Amino acid sequence: MPLITPPFRTSLLMANGVPFSTGNGDIQTTKDWWLYWNQLTDRSNSNSKLVSEGTHADRPDPGSMPDGAIYIEADRGAIYSNEGGTWQYIAGTMYGTLSPDERPTDLGTHDAGFEFRGTDAPRQFLWSQTEWIEVTAVQYGPHAARPAPATIVEGALYVESDRGGVIYQRETPAGTPLWQYLAGTMWGILVPDQRPTDLGTHDAGFDFRTNVAPPREFIWNQTAWVEVTPVGGAVNLTHPNVITKVGSTSGQIVEGGITDESAANSDRLHVTAAGDVGIATATPADKLAVQATLHAASQDGGIRIQSTGNYALRILLRINSGGSPYFSVQSSDGGGFVEILRLNQYDVVSFPRLRSTNPGAGNQQLWYDPADGNRVKWAP
Fold this sequence. Notes:
Largest sheet: 7 strands, mixed
Oligomer: single chain
């Protein structure tokens, strides 16, 4: 109710129920002024409660405090305001340890924004009305200590100290919080293999380099490691089917080869340290060795030197169905190839397409004469 001040001429005192004028009788304050002083005292007592301080446990019932009253929690460094009979957090920062965890566990909806900073680790947290959200801009520590992404604010960075300082960013693609690799290179050795084995889709691009000779580099491609070590004399000449063996001391390529695309990566071309080249064999006995495959007489195989066009000639080293090697010369007039000369391992020479008619003088060709017992003759 409003504070009513009595009229100026109202007597302050009275005696025996009438305004006081002499020193005789029972002296009392007049009713008007008594009500005024009583209201003024209540108003002063109420205003004295606008700001108070104490521990969180001693925080008074907001129903007994006027709206707008301020309470400072001395043990938490937080400031609350009484808003409609509820203590509402408005400011302040609590400092404490994270191990053991001294963050309050009794917060609720009206504590939204409550700030906590670690004294044993430079980390910052805000209360979201239901849980703690870390808002530390950049964190630093080992991979195993990387916090769960759901408890980290969007865009925060984490530097993995045990993996060469690689940097991850907290992102939320498709509504799922996760750590996404951004940048950085991990250095280590391959024997034993120190490349991480726990990478996945969101680690794509993770870079690993060896810190001992020979220098090698690998990139994680979401599912596997891919070597991208540059080859000397070329610019980034790499391929997963090109295999090189590098000397442990010199750092030079001492052996290499090319594999096929089978699961076993079968050796298809191999160059030894001695410079011997093997095709389909990793142990060439000569400077050039070919491990041929058995074929039926009608099939092609072995080494082939072939021209192109409608008219072609090719030379083959082949193995027949019985496993015997032979030398063959074949020709084509636009259709299929036909054999015109064969030499086998027993020094037997045959001419499957030898002419049976005399080509005439000046052609300098061999032919056989059916009329003369199939003798081979020379047309000069």
